[in-house]
Design brief:
disordered C terminus; 7% strand; Arc Repressor Mutant, subunit A; mainly alpha; 142 residues
Length: 142
């Protein structure tokens, strides 16, 4: 339902919620993603006011607000359009359209009520094995 980039942004934000501050390189290493890609994700989060970057030797990224004050909805909507107003008017919507709207509304509501503090990872190093990355190793032959 959400793009991979959105998943990666959520993971990066959860890492920052756990560790306070990290460089794009550290977050990229923890997630197993290229540094340049993670830098772009973090730049989008910074433009949306969700993270703050500090330049220099002790620089890096940190959350702009406390983890309890940043909802998953805040992160997701930096990358996804959850607004269904562009869809067919309710009078013209099919039963399937209405059902999908209910699912989308329930998802948005759950994201609004879940903060980064709720999903904080205990240790940034535990995020290195992302469930969204495929293993390149071959299965053992029997």
């Amino acid at each position: 339902m959400l793009s991979r980039t959105t998943h990666h942004a959520l993971r990066a934000a959860a890492i920052l919620a756990a560790g306070g501050q990290a460089t794009s390189t550290q977050i990229a290493q923890a997630t197993g993603l290229p540094r340049g890609y993670m830098a772009k994700v973090l730049a989008i989060l910074a433009r949306r006011g969700l993270v703050v970057s500090t330049r220099g030797r002790r620089g890096g990224f940190r959350l702009a607000r406390a983890p309890s004050a940043v909802s998953l909805f805040d992160i997701v909507t930096a990358f996804e359009n959850l607004d269904d107003s562009a869809r067919a008017p309710r009078a013209q919507a099919s039963p399937l359209d209405l059902a999908l709207r209910r699912v989308a509304a329930a998802t948005a509501e759950a994201l609004r009520h879940t903060s980064l503090a709720d999903v904080r990872v205990p240790d940034a190093s535990s995020t290195a094995a992302s469930p969204h990355r495929r293993s390149r190793s071959k299965p053992a032959s029997m």
